[in-house]
Write a structure and sequence with these properties.
Blueprint (H helix, E strand, L loop, with lengths): L13 H6 L4 E4 L4 H12 L5 E3 L5 H8 L3 E3 L13 E4 L8 H8 L4 E3 H9 L3 E6 L4 H14 L5 E8 L8 H5 L2 H4 L11 H5 L1 E4 L16 E5 L14 E4 L7 H4 L2 H12 L10 E5 L5 H5 L5 E6 L6 E6 L4 E5 L5 E5 L5 H10 L1
């Protein structure tokens, strides 16, 4: 939990420094992604404040954590001490507070632009695809937390297990803690109790072959309005690509072209660039053409580099990866689509 006494009182960390704002003001702060970004920046030492059109459980949570909010946007008033604004995708160009920021010469970023700048201060991992982005991002955040890699996470949904990982649930429910009423609840972090769409994570990767590099920052990569072109990933996944957001793109070909542009953001393989893409249903040939990063495929078809199989009745999922590496687990979330989501995270 972000204490009201500590919001903005610490020296900004790597994420806030990469953003370039010490006191960001978030317009439309009540959305899933925006609220998660606000909590990430506040936890990293930035002096976060913001506004939204209406109160909600999300804004109440932010206020309880010491984030200063207003619900009067039309007057175009901004705090005197802010040094920039971040706008949700729903904020129009003529929004009174955005116009006031422009009048004052303050830098203004969209949510996607701000997230991309934050990723520049970490080892970025972007999860893309028409379907399953939120689920896969949350699953991967939990997996990496359980593995001791302490990732930062931004996801457009809430996940009770995101802060402490899934294995923490086992210790919470140990027999010793189950003996008393509510005995396990006190062991959970406040973020686990309330649900969270963010996790701050370590400024450096603490273990494994990448130990010492800038800490991991996982983010859901939304293709709407080509927002994911602002990401700065080192590793990315594209599970599927379909004709969606046609009000923006107009055709499936344009959607594929946008995903190809996203994949082209990845660095060369020699610099750690890696793309995991669906073997089927992701238009992989068009999207991966000319890429210099490492490319691997995943799917249910045997020719995929990593082959997924599942027993729907039991929820058992198996993954046979390159080099004969094979793992299996029981998935609590039903359906073949969630089997694939969990396999991408694995």
């Amino acid at each position: 939990m972000i204490s009201p006494q500590t919001v903005g009182s610490r020296t900004p960390g790597a994420v806030a420094v990469a953003l370039g704002l010490k006191k960001p003001y978030l317009i439309g702060i009540g959305g899933c992604g925006m609220s998660a970004l606000a909590r990430l920046l506040a936890a990293d030492g930035a002096g976060v404040s913001g506004s939204d059109s209406t109160r909600s459980p999300v804004t109440e949570m932010l206020e309880a954590e010491g984030v200063s909010l207003t619900f009067e946007q039309q007057a175009g008033v901004l705090p005197e001490d802010i040094d920039g604004v971040i706008c949700s995708a729903a904020i129009p160009a003529d929004h009174p507070q955005l116009l006031e920021a422009q009048r004052r010469g303050l830098p203004a970023f969209t949510y996607a632009e701000a997230l991309g700048r934050c990723m520049a201060g970490r080892t970025g991992v972007s999860i893309a695809g028409t379907h399953g982005k939120s689920t896969t991002t949350a699953m991967l955040g939990c997996v990496l937390t359980d593995a001791g890699l302490d990732p930062g996470v931004i996801v457009g949904a809430t996940c009770d297990q995101l802060h402490d990982g899934c294995l923490a649930e086992q210790s919470v429910r140990s027999p010793e803690r189950e003996r008393g009423a509510g005995a396990g609840r006190s062991q959970r972090s406040p973020e686990r109790e309330r649900g969270a769409g963010f996790r701050l994570g370590s400024p450096e990767i603490p273990a494994g072959p990448l130990a010492g590099r800038p800490g991991l920052l996982l983010a859901e990569a939304c293709e709407y309005n080509r927002s994911f072109h602002h990401h700065r990933p080192v590793v990315a996944s594209i599970a599927n690509v379909e004709a969606d957001h046609l009000d923006i793109y107009g055709s499936l070909d344009a959607v594929i072209e946008a995903f190809a542009g996203f994949a082209a953001l990845l660095p060369d393989e020699a610099d750690g660039g890696r793309l995991l893409i669906g073997h089927d249903g992701a238009h992989r040939r068009e999207i991966t053409a000319g890429l210099r990063c490492r490319v691997e495929t995943i799917g249910f078809a045997p020719p995929a580099d990593s082959v997924v199989s599942t027993d729907v009745a039991s929820g058992r999922v198996s993954l046979a990866g390159p080099g004969g590496v094979s793992v299996s687990w029981t998935n609590a979330m039903p359906g073949e689509h969630n089997a694939l989501n969990s396999a991408v995270a694995a």
